[in-house]
Amino acid sequence: MLYDKVNIADVVDSEAALEFMKEATKLATSTDLEDIGQRLENKARLFSELLSEEHIAELTADEFKQLIASIFSIKRKANKILKAIEIESLRETLATLLYGDEALDVRFNQASQALEMMNDTMRFNLICELLHFSNPQKYWLWTNWIWDFKKHTGALSLVLQDDIDLEAKTPGELYVKIGQTTALVNAVGHRVGFSSAGAGLFGTDIFFACVYAVYMYTVFRVKLSQEFNRILPELTELTQQILGVKSMEMN
Fold first, then answer.
1. Cβ-contact 107, 96 below 8 angstroms
2. 153 φ, ψ to 5°?
3. Fewer CB within 10 Å, N side or C side of the chain?
4. In whole angstroms, what is the distance from residue 205 CA to residue 199 CA?
5. pTM of this prediction?
6. CA 245 from centroid of its chain's CA atoms
């Protein structure tokens, strides 16, 4: 593992992480955040059912659209994707990604190549959401708001120590590297409390979304007028939106 011989404190800036979550809890209650955790579990239930090894070979276009509807960055792109790649080829691509025998980074790269009609951000977000929410115990979330590999910005950049290297030769290698880093953030978060709003990695998903939201509010307060700031979503709504669970039905 990337950080086997590195102290967690050398990777995760716990003080910054706690400060971000302190600011987030001024804007949303613990109940609000726990509600998001439940919505994430419902989202994962949908993904795991439609993308199960038993069902994926029969995945319909309408079911694929249902999945895309809960992925914030591409929720209006389902028809465009299905025009560019036939559902039969899409099923094969997804089955190989989720259940293939190759190493994870290889499967990630294969899926990325199969979806080359999409730009980097869109296809990486799609691949990572499908992996994470179909099997959240095994896979993690990587989106451009968590880590933008071109701009070196995102929630991760705000809670890691300054000298952490997130460079990689391939998208699959980068996904694995982000997973190793996320595992450390998750371990610290559940120990000290900033990942407590959801079970397992869902708590860290919520934490990353809160970090991103607080950062956005800070930037907008500096750059935009107070009147324009009033149209920004509240933190609860913003985190629901970027995690793709705003319209997710509650049980």
1. yes
2. -125, 175
3. C
4. 10
5. 0.92
6. 12
